[in-house]
UniProtKB/TrEMBL annotation:
It comes from Actinocorallia herbida. Its cofactor is [4Fe-4S] cluster. NCBIfam families: nadA (TIGR00550), PRK09375.2-2 (NF006881), PRK09375.2-4 (NF006883). This is Quinolinate synthase. The gene is nadA. Its EC number is 2.5.1.72. Coiled coil: none annotated. The keyword Metal-binding applies. InterPro entries: NadA, NadA_sf, Quinolinate_synth_A_type3.
Length: 383
């Protein structure tokens, strides 16, 4: 069994760490953010590229970027839509690294996926490395349970981890289909190893599947056998990886209590990556796509405190001036890696393509892609 150490901290955009989701140099000359012609330049480059480029934008992207997206969506919708334009040779992914990897896996061999800033990783995805997950599987084998555990990985994981899950008969899930993925997994085996977001795993198991908190254990990849005894591993229904989202993990129960006191009748709507006590205290829980639909369907004059990334909440507040839309917690800010994709990087990526250069291409090696696709296809086929 290999020993695992903390990943060295890299400053975003400096140096290179190909084994991690973060921190890779941005080659080329970026236009200055102060250039007043940036919007016109992006528009002109996109027009020049026509149907040869397909721009996908996650809901957490900045407004300045999302205005150029051909399709917007949550992780699930973008994974499904990535293959919607098979004739487009270039897919510019305005999101984070694991999403671009999934797009590369799900699109045609001739299509090239471009991430405008290679430093747009995901801290949650970084919390599960391939070696750590292999060590975990060894620990499950030592406890005599590997053949009855089905691995389920959240979309927010590297292609390596998705490949591992595909190789071991598991499935990928997103925040919009986690319950269906767990229903499927428990039909295949008796226990689930849920990677890498403990909160999505716990919230789905307890609030949607009727399991108890005692059915869940947390596997700490920095401790031998995850810090769990053989009995704990054998008796758990859900073995939750000790990972979390650094944005959603900061919303607090105190903020829910505070907003309820301050705004009578407020609806508290949070993402399932939030901690269990926050989700428990909320009125509604769902993926970003669910949050958008809930606001679309809300009564004029109603009040909404939303616990998800700030770019999306600001956009919802602007889109619904007839509703009182607010951010749930003052202590939480933007997702810094989603925000790495800004207009200068998008302009740089599009103008490079116009010149016939393919910048920041994201590729997944054939073997990893094969097994990751098994787990992604299993997700796309969930009933
Ligand atoms: P969804 O897009 O599945 O709602 O996930 C949110 C998220 O944190 C993406 O990084
Ligand atoms: Fe990762 Fe959280 Fe940012 Fe999503 S919001 S990309 S899960 S750090």
């Amino acid at each position: 069994m290999t020993t695992t150490t903390d990943l060295p901290l890299l400053l975003l955009g400096q140096g290179a760490d190909p084994a991690s989701e973060r921190g890779v140099d941005c080659p080329g000359d970026l236009p200055p953010a102060s250039d007043p012609a940036l919007v016109a330049r992006a528009r002109a480059a996109k027009e020049a590229l026509g149907d040869s480029v397909f721009v996908l934008g996650h809901h957490y992207q900045r407004d300045e970027v999302i205005q150029f997206a051909d399709v917007t969506g949550d992780s699930f919708k973008l994974a499904r839509d990535a293959a919607a334009r098979p004739q487009a040779p270039y897919i510019v992914f305005c999101g984070v690294h694991f999403m671009a990897e999934s797009a590369d896996i799900l699109t045609g061999a001739d299509q090239k996926v471009i991430l405008p800033d290679l430093a747009a990783g995901c801290s949650m995805a970084d919390m599960a490395t391939f070696d750590q997950v292999e060590d975990c599987w060894d620990a499950l084998a030592d406890a005599g349970i590997a053949d009855r555990v089905v691995p389920v990985t959240y979309m927010n994981s590297s292609a390596d981890i998705k490949g591992f899950v595909g190789r071991h008969g598991g499935v990928v899930c997103t925040s919009s289909n986690a319950k269906r993925a767990l229903d499927w997994a428990f039909a295949q085996g008796e226990q689930v190893l849920f990677l890498p977001d403990q909160h999505l795993g716990r919230n789905t198991a307890v609030l949607e599947m009727g399991l108890s908190l005692d059915d869940c254990v947390v596997y700490n990849p920095r401790r031998p056998s995850g810090g769990l005894t053989r009995e704990q591993l054998q008796n758990a229904k859900m073995i939750l990886w000790q990972g979390h989202c650094s944005v959603h993990g900061r919303f607090s129960k105190a903020a829910v209590d505070e907003v309820r006191e301050r705004v009578p009748g407020v609806n508290v709507l949070v993402h399932p990556e939030c901690r269990h006590e926050v989700v428990n205290a909320a009125d509604l829980v769902g993926s970003t796509e669910y949050i958008i639909k809930a606001l679309d369907a809300a009564e004029p004059g109603s009040s909404w405190a939303i616990g998800t990334e700030l770019n999306l909440v600001k956009r919802l507040a602007n889109a619904h001036p007839d509703k009182n839309v607010m951010f749930l917690d003052k202590a939480v800010c933007f997702c810094s890696t989603m925000n790495r994709i800004d207009l200068p990087h998008l302009v740089w990526a599009l103008e490079s393509l116009v010149r016939g250069e393919v910048p920041n291409q994201i590729t997944v090696d054939a073997e990893t892609a094969h097994y990751a696709k098994v787990a992604l296809d299993q997700m796309l086929a969930l009933p």
